[in-house]
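> example.struct
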């Protein structure tokens, strides 16, 4: 059935409103980052700065170790994404190919674990890291991020694994390939879009994470970028708005750039035509 003109107009209007709702905070952040102090305190703010300046960026770098904090965030996010994908891929392969009660129980537990609030996890994780002497360390934070991202990675990759035609694996078995060789040489290349998408979301989640980093990292040289951003807020809750906006704008750029570079691989399918029915 063809959608009527009023319904189509309503759909596009709702979509446009949703896009404006999503874009407003980021656009306002960019505008604030380039405004001088006089415009930041104006009673009649404008979208476009009348006298744009880079002083907020210079002040942000002078006041806080943003580059060092960004390096800590980058190392933690990359390591967490890689480890989570390396663990989730073979686990999902086993769960998808072996339809047993244990596999169903694992899938159910993955779904249920997503509902756990962070507060319930931080205490046992803190005790475990304390016994391992990983408190106030980037490796300890990576371990927490892997535990946190693994259920989502398992859930996200499961659909991609099930979409791989079993006939390809059967053909590889006929040629003499074992399970591991089949997973590495046949299944894994076909899972590339799913692996990239899962790693991307794990990276972005770890890059933007604040709560665990705030609790587990104590010294300034170990802190990640989201934690350092809170240092622009004074003891009385008054924010240094210009430098804070500039630093927050820079903190969002890696996620946007990474997503823009690989979005085609996420949306593109690599299974088209693999098996003819």
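> example.seq
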């Amino acid at each position: 059935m063809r959608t009527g003109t009023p319904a189509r107009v309503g759909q596009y209007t709702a979509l446009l409103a949703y896009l404006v709702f999503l874009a407003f905070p980021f656009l306002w952040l960019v505008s604030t980052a380039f405004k001088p102090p006089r415009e930041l305190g104006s009673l009649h703010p404008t979208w476009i700065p009348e006298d744009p300046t880079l002083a907020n960026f210079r002040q942000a770098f002078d006041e806080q170790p943003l580059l060092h904090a960004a390096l800590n965030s980058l190392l933690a996010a990359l390591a967490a994404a890689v480890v989570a994908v390396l663990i989730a891929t073979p686990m999902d392969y086993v769960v998808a190919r072996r339809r047993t009660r244990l596999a169903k129980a694992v899938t159910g537990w993955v779904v249920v674990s997503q509902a756990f609030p962070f507060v319930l996890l931080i205490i046992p994780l803190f005790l475990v890291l304390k016994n391992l002497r990983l408190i106030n360390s980037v490796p300890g934070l990576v371990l927490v991020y892997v535990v946190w991202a693994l259920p989502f990675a398992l859930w996200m990759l499961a659909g991609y694994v099930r979409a791989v035609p079993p006939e390809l694996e059967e053909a590889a078995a006929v040629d003499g390939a074992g399970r591991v060789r089949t997973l590495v040489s046949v299944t894994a290349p076909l899972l590339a879009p799913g692996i990239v998408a899962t790693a991307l979301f794990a990276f972005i989640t770890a890059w933007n994470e604040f709560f665990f980093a705030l609790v587990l990292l104590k010294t300034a040289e170990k802190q990640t970028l989201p934690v350092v951003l809170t240092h622009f807020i004074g003891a009385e809750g008054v924010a240094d708005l210009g430098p804070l906006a500039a630093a927050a704008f820079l903190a969002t750029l890696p996620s946007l750039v990474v997503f823009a570079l690989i979005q085609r691989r996420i949306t593109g399918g690599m299974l088209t035509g693999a098996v003819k029915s």
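> remarks
DSSP finds 13 helices and no strands in the chain.
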